Task: structure prediction
Amino acid sequence: MSTLVNGLCLGGIYALIALGYTMVYGIAKMLNFAHGDIIMIGAYAIISTLSLTGNTLAAIIAAIIICTLLGVLTERLAYRPLRGASPLAVLITAIGVSYLLQSIAQLIFGAQSITVEIGSLNAVNVLGVSIPVSSLITLALCVVIMTALTLFITKTKLGCAMLAVSEDRAAAQLMGINTNMIITLTFAIGSALAAFASTFYLMQIPSATPTLGSMPGIKAFTAAVIGGIGSIPGAMIGGILLGVIEKFALSVPALAPYTTAIEFGLLIIILLVKPTGLLGKKRREKV
Amino acid sequence: MSLLTVENLEVCYGLIRAIKGVSFHVDEGEIVSLIGANGAGKTTIMHAVCNLIPKAAGTVSFMGNDITETAAHKLVPMGIAQVPEGRRIFQELTVAENLRLGAYTRSDKKEIEETREKMYERFPILKERAKQIAGTLSGGEQQMLAMSRALMSHPKLLLLDEPSMGLSPLYVNIIFDMIKQVNAEGTTVLLVEQNAKKALAIADRAYVLEIGKIARTGTGAELLADDSIRRAYLGD
Result:
């Protein structure tokens, strides 16, 4: 039971990050490998604001603002000039941005890990099982955020425009949709979700290093691919699936050392059976 | 009054000059057809006019405003709507969502609703399928949807790129009837077609495009009666 809650909780974090990958892939048609590092910057933003103000809420808000601005800024400065360039050039640029962000963080905060205390990390008894409050908060907020995002995408005009841009950018332009604005918006949303992920990450593991974003980034990317890259519900399902599997594998002593291998093994198996991921659609080539 | 004026348009794909200085104009209220063989450059012209691809040279003006460099999405609120080749409806969205996106640049909810009702009246099948994913429609229904979607923006000028492509003769007739009707209601039409016979029959004026250049121009009736045109494009 507590393993399941912990798994769902970790899965929620993976899902939030995976949403950033999948939305940017779906709409800008690029893999933003610097996405994990946005989480890292978010974590440092929280730690710095917390040490300055001592206010957790202010720290979270600061992280959301900084991550969103950073996401929009990297898109404007690094990716937009490459629109229409070969996908490989964009991919390498994204890796470059990733290293740049890590180096900047290392210059400012040093390579050593900085620890932080976020809120109270008590545990409560639910049905006779002790579960940390932070896990419950994470779980509840993940559900709220994902519901809000789903409603935004499916019920609003802007959300509909995002789906249109994702399916056919030129046709979307012919509808009068400013595709650059939609791409910027996508980066902003993805990065804001990453800021939430950094908050929840610090609630689980209260320390930060300049490479903090790499592993959750790769895991979440795996989750996005498992769910079917470009698919929003796919990212949610993939993230939660991966989180639960990770926690269950860790809870069995015989499997624990092989946790990461199991996760990536799952990716390989799913891609062998269904190359587009669980909910991914085969894109028909346009004639 | 000239609504759309294209002057000395040139478009290059790499080193190849695909459009070699094309000039034409569309007057208010007209149906103007641009006919030509496969690969003559018809679709390229459509894309260049709407700035979906860059121009190498030339100017485009709409209602006296220079729109040579105007971003594609800004042309819709000015009054230009294009139905692209191959329809390009949003396959994964519903029929109703496709129509709603057609009115993306309008904000008057009530009038949008009225326009949509008009589209549904014209093509009741779209109303029946409003909640259906657009990709499940037949080719002819998709063309109806694509044209209705373009009209949702209340365009002054409708650009149609190969609307009859891949359709059964029944649907071709429906689509051409719709073009006439839309034009009669006051929308100016620029039509690009391979089906030269139909395109000339419906057109006030027409241009014949041959490998990136305008080879002939005249009224639809003149060109339809012309022997060389009949041999080259109408299979007589």
